[in-house]
Amino acid sequence: MKNETLRPVDRQVIALEVNGERTEMLLPVHKTLLEVLREDMGLTGTKHGCELGECGTCTVLVGGKPELSCLVLPIQVQGQAVTTVEGMAHGSQLHPLQQAFAELGAAQCGYCTPGILLAAKSLVETNPAPTRDEIREALAGNLCRCTGYSKILDAVSLAASRMG
Amino acid sequence: MKVVGKPLPKVDASAKVTGRAIYADDMLPPRTLHCRILRSPHPHARILSIDTSAARRIPGVLAVITGADLPVKFGILPVTQDERALEHEKVRYVGDPIAAVAATDEEIAAAACDAIAVEYDVLEPVMSIDAALREPKDERIQDYGGPNNIHKLVALEFGDVEGGFAQAEIIREDVFFYQGNTHLPMEQHSAIATYLDGKVTLWSSTQVVHYVHRALSKVLELPMNRIRVIGAAHGGGFGGKTDPFAHEIIVCKLAMLTGRPVKCTLTREEVFYAHRGRHPVLMWVRTGVAKDGRITAMHFRTALDGGAYGSYGVASTFYTGALQTVTYDIPAYRFEGCRVFTNKPPCGPKRGHGTPQPRFALELHLEKIARDLGLDPVELKRRNFVQPNTRTVNWLRVTSCGLDECVDRVMQASGYATREKRIGHGMGFAVSTYLSGAGTAIYWNDMPHSEVQIKVDRGGVTAYCGAMDIGQGSDSVLATIVAEELGLQPADVRLVTADTDTTPIDLGSYSSRVTFMAGNAAVEAARKMRAMLVEATAAKMGCEASAVEVGDGRIGDFSFEEASVLAEARFGTLTSAGSYTPPRIAGPYKGSGVGPSPAYSYSACVVDLDADERTGLVSVNKIWIAHDVGRAINPLLVEGQVEGSVYMGLGEALMEEQTFRKGLHKWPSMLEYKSPTFLDMPEVQTFIVETVDPEGPYGAKEAGQGPLLPVPPALCSAVYDALGVWIDEIPVTPEKVLEALRRKSKGEPARYGPPMFPPIPYPPPIKVEPPPKDLDHASAAAI
């Protein structure tokens, strides 16, 4: 019988810079950034909801811009800074977005939260005083089933005002 | 009160915003094997043979199991033990599990599933309520129930229904359809098991560790004391993780066979097949009303499309008829319900379990009656509201009831009565009610529904409870209550929850039960602990216990830590326990176990929208919602539950639908299964109404489900207000609006909805005398 799984998997050494830390890893070339972050680097703060680029849950920042890590191969992001939720806080000091999400109850089950925090981080860094509609537009690719989005909008506004 | 009623952050907020909360799929212990499940490609087929030999030969495959390895049937309800973890005789929907593989990585496991050869004898699928009522072409889906593919028939009559209709000024009949939809939790179901020393440990994204524990014991044929179930951090349930699931049983079996940790995370497509979501329900309702708008009698019929297995379906069926009387005072009531089997993923409980569908029908039906009588719909509904401290005709006990206040709040804020009348703009109104926990357990027993233990050790406080925080904040509620009683802050209380080895029983996060039931158990446990701390402190101070004040981290003259040392010296190990058992208030008839709750929440809702008569598109501008929560233990979390409920109700009303074509799910993906995004969600204004229920902890009732219910009917009421057409089935898609407008323009009834209700062989109803008027008088007066 034909047995594809016996064939050695193509691997390549890939240099990644995640949350300011550089690492080199020998990785199967088809493994997604999402899988590498979660399984090879232990950065399980990045979640997944579909692995098809539909829900926004696995959003990370690449060069400061939101990317769906389930659709990105590590080789594509060599030489660019990758930021995950683990890289948001300064030491034990929460990022203002994290602080506002905690204070206002913007995380219920918390599963979509890392992706939304990063998409919001990218927004407030490019637009320090976003309107509610601008926040809606920036986060429209991130689904949340718990909150009805209201508290998330409030939290991003609050964080932006504190950062500004 | 010092912490109850304060908008404090959730106790797990930091873990969640930093990505440090560990969900089941985040766990990857060394040597973990990955499990994939082979599922049926046919909606209905006999399995002739399963050949796993090629799969077993693939390097990296450590175990392959089929139904022969897990033959014992299970199911959430004792009366419908009709599921197998793996089917080896027959498959009943596309996605039904057949075989499972444990391999060193996921790709190998998937390749091994592909290498399993299954021979089928394909049978005619049954894909609709109508088809299920007919004689099957090949064979019935299940071998119980009947006739044909009927699963369950119920018929109940309370009071003099015929006499009630005879007194009516007008009698109206309507037919409605509520399409099925699914929970769509952001987290895919995931479970990981280990096996050591003859003992299985399972971490799972479940809403109810206790029911998984029971099912594992049954199917694995192990005593419960050899099984430990732990709820991992939970990525959203909404009812969809309340059943015990095949993959939970499978990973345990594979861990037992391989001696290694085994993990299974469902793909998003598999989550659509796991389902247990909202039943599609066809409804017929007939109501008699006197000239003043008072209801004289009601007859309600439902037909539920249950999917392939029982799940919670028997309870769902009763729920489609139970709570109509808890909102409106209906003096005579007949309910006939029917659930059918179809070759689709099984339906079960979704937020509001079996009650959003009849709520949708009832609210629109009453609105139509009001227009027939020339009465204001809000006024007609108000005239029929139940009153506090009453029993309904079907014996349900109503205690606190904030319906009137809820209506006042949304009416004032929305300006509904003075709304601008123009084509294309509309406002709609609806009310609803929901349970604060089911008054009877899923399996019959005399034990408490929730238990809490507290340990105090030299300043530290730990509370133990089986309750599972699924994101709604039940851990925060527990910590808040214990902190309130002991004069501390929630952050001072350590929590151990949802672990069958270390925590006492709680029946889990479903039916909006945790705040009420675990909350009451926590109050009892904390008050016992407080009494010991106070007694020891009073002895040291040389005063009466009543003179010792508790609060701000102090017990009398001492810090909490000093007081705990005094108490430990006096009493030894400091532990206390509390439990909650709901009052026995079910009526004296078969089926009375579904509907009773220690307290009911109430909601009122107004929807403001624009509806485009050219495109049929509905755009919601704003929603006002008032919810009688009894008491908000944490108003921030209550608002979150109310807003989330409104969001989910709006999704169901406008776009969410689980539908099938030729036996296949039409859109098992998050892109094609439409759910509201940030851009679809209007502003929501929430009003918390506090009626302080006599039996709730500090007066609290439920918050997490009830506010979903009024949204779909309020939306349809607003569409009528805007365009003069009734959309009697949800979701309200542009096609339906345009078709209704087309019919209106041709002089046909200005309506889109099911044309008729099919003939169903309901049995003669069980006739039940209404309860005596003064049934609860003595107990109500005592409260």
Describe this structure in words.
The complex is a heterodimer of chains A (164) and B (783). With 164 residues, chain A is an alpha+beta fold. Chain A has helices spanning 33-40, 96-104, 113-126, 132-138, 150-163; strands at 11-18, 21-28, 59-62, 65-68, 81-83. Chain A has 2 domains: 4-87, Ubiquitin-like (UB roll); 96-163, [2Fe-2S]-binding domain (DNA polymerase, domain 1, Orthogonal Bundle). In chain A, strand 3 (59-62) and strand 4 form a beta hairpin. The mean pLDDT of chain A is 95. Chain B has a 7-stranded mixed sheet. The two termini of chain B are 21 Å apart. Chain B is an alpha+beta fold and 783 residues long. Chain B is 28% helix and 25% strand. Chain B has 20 helices and 34 strands. The interface between A and B is large, with 60 and 65 residues.
Keywords:
A: alpha+beta; DNA polymerase, domain 1; five-stranded mixed sheet; 5 helices; 32% helix; globular; B: 783 residues; Aldehyde Oxidoreductase, domain 3; seven-stranded mixed sheet; 20 helices; 28% helix
